[in-house]
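@channel anyone free to eyeball this complex?
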Amino acid sequence: MTLTPHEVAVSQLGTGHGIPLERITSLRFIKNNIIGNKTKKNLYIKLGILSRLQEIVSVKDDKDSQLKIQAVIVLGSFAFGMRKKNVDLYYPHLGPNCGNEDNITALTNAGVVEPLLNSLNPSGDPKLIEASARTLNAIYASPKVSRQQLFQGNHLHVLVQLLDAYSSNVRQGQDLVMVHTAELVASILARCCETSDQQMKIASSGAIPLLMRLLAGGVSKTQEAALGALAALVKDNSELARLIAQTRLEKGERPAPFILRLVRDKSPTMRLAAATCLTYLNRAGVIPDHYVDIMQTVLPVLVKMLLLTGQVQETAPKILAYLIWESENMQKAVCEMDAIPKLAQIISVMEDGDLMYGIVDHRDKLKENSLLALAAISQMKEDCRKQVIEAKVLPYIVTAMSHPSVGVRAAACQCTRSLSRSVKNLRTSLVDAGIEAPLFQLLSDDDPGVLSSATATLCNIVLDVSPMKKTIMERGIVAKFVHMIGYGDNIVRLNAVWAIKNLVFGAPSDVKETVMRQFGYHNLVALLNDGELAIQEQALNLVRNLACNNEQDINQVFNGMGSGQLLSIIEDKLTWDDQRLLEHALYVLVNIATGSEVHKQSVMKRPSILRSVLSLMTHESVAIRVATIWVIINLTWPDEKVSQSLHERVSVLRSMGVEDRLRSLNSDHDLDVRDRVKTALDHFVVDQQQHGHGVPTQ
Amino acid sequence: MSRRPLQSNLQSSNPAGGLTKKIISRDEWDAKLAGVQVDREDLNKLIMNYLIIEGFKNAAEEFSHESGTKPPVNLESIEDRTIVRKAILRGNIEEAIERVNDLNPEILDTNPKLFFHLQQQRLIEYIREGRIMEALEFAQEELAPRGEENPEFLAELERTMSLLAFELAGPSPVSDLLTPAQRQKLASELNRELLLSQSQEKDPKLPALLKMCLYAQQQLDERCTYPKIKDFTKAELVMEPMGSGPIGGASGASGVGA
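replying in thread with the prediction:
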């Protein structure tokens, strides 16, 4: 059987072949065959080329760099994917770069990363260093590749040294190679900077001043790569963000105004890189002086990118979403720039197009990011939510809730979550758009992100006394929540308790009873003692909602939990130093005190509860002071039918010093407190007039 | 920059666009032009920018000597691009591909469209040379898989393959594929990518400035009569006779500098 030229080429790479020239020729032949050609890449991997290449790049001998260079380039070609060169190259954290995942796994399994890192040795051939950096950069494009090796030994130190492209000891004629190497290294660092630990290690290795110099250097590709690395360093890291915002470029300028000029650059990828960096700095709160610039320059630039194509269009909405999240003013501004129709256009047009190979990833990402942007824009302003509904994009959002991609599902759900914060009539349009079935489906989603958005959306939707409350209960929603509380992560558990709380809010007694029969009071008691404070808080709030409205509802809770257990829990919570926990505990008391004489007495029989209420009457928080006074008001509420026990209750409270404390609150700076105090004191005064004794001590 | 004086004239012209156009005499115009300071160094930079991006290495060297303008990049990088361009214009696509891979192996791995166009040109060259069996084999082995990966290439592939159905010398709906313009187009596409990979701008500034100038003249034509440049290769100011309409479609820009 005759060998194919490809088989011959691979066989000639073996170490047995002593003639380097022949091996170099074979490598060049292979290189020119596989570049751009996926089929040939697969063929050569099957022929076992990777172990041969690994041997060549692992040789310690530095004399023959030509052979190594060609081998490193061939390795790099295996790592490149079929996707068009894109800005993702510098933004690993914005989403998976579609490299050639299978091939990259084959490369790492063949053990090429360590020898490639070793080939970066600055005393070696600059061409070899450049080629190794390029290949490593392509390998690290895959988020699956472990970043560990890079942070071991001397590697990080060597990489950072290579950022120093503009130092004076650059050899003549090598300047282009050095600058390009620095660009590649900046990109590698951006890709290996995902955790705060990695951020700190890269920063403390001295990368920041060198990245600054690359940023100011004027070579556009290298500037973009430097922006990518700086963005990765400051993302969600206020310490580094502050450090970077306060350094100065060589001419004494701060980085922010410099980057701001790059936001207006001719190249869209540069504009995006610059806008991304400023976005992270802004979210870290370290460039407050540039608020106007962000509003007037960065926002419109990002919005205009929605009309471009490819990677820039794909990434821009995600950055936009991140930038305007939690900023009402920015959301309003973006809304006024007509971003909503543009996003709606992207989302709805994509739906009609036919699916094409290779760009499915791009389409999914574009849809996901556009939905995230819509979610962010409609997060706070009612006007913006109205625009989203008017853009007729709701049916597409609902469809996207059942999308095969987790990211799209989560983003769609985030959208419905924002929209469900709306006033009631807009919430109704969500229900009308058929949100119920897909939303319910998402409550069984494997992804915790999707699950938490879905429960959060549901929280808002079940808040109304709407027909949906009944139908979703018939679908078995409570059992699902119980399951989530048992097995979900803390965010999912929290949202599930929250949703149950909203489900019983203002609900009729029979709904409360049905919910609690399925949920089980023992589960509620467990949650009241949960390890997560936020969950305890929601559980207490649930008790507050359950024991609200009438005596029957209070009885239900008393019977369900046992009044002794309930009051012991409240007694305990009142000793905690957590404002929201205290507030909810107090309002449980407020609600119980609206009940029957038995209910009121159950509180009166707990002197330590009463003492806690008394001491909380001077709490620094207005909300808590108001809550304590409400407890007193309800416990002293005039009622002819039980005048004797009313008098006894007032007397007990008076003897504890409650009336005195109330009088001292007469001069409280808060109007609400003073109003409540007035009502409560009236009760004491009326009692005094009727019974004539128990004059308060001064 | 050269637009500024024209703009100020625009503002002084009759805003209502009445029947009579404002007339700006040759003297007035010359005086205005004389008032505009154009830095000689800036002009030299513009020319250097054009020579480098279009790949005229020798001319750039000469110009650098004569004018003392320092080239902003290594002139060797021009030579690399020139070699690639020449190989394409000769129809030696394989050589061009090998050169590009030596210069930067990332380019063709990350630009499927450009890579496809190069392979398509190889196919065209096989057909031109009458190496039909090789053409078929090449199309099957190299081009068809790319078409599978990116269906947008399929139409172009089909069009190229239909060259086989026609007499090469005769007229056909696909004869444009055999013209030098086809090679030119590819050479420019590749040149742009090489420039981008070297962090250089992909288009020279000079043609853009000429387009801007042409646009400004067209705008001005509606409002006034003035000494205008009609032939950009001569760059002479010509005063138009009264009453003539705007002149459209002047195409002098492409001739400059060639």
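from a first look: The mean pLDDT of chain A is 89.
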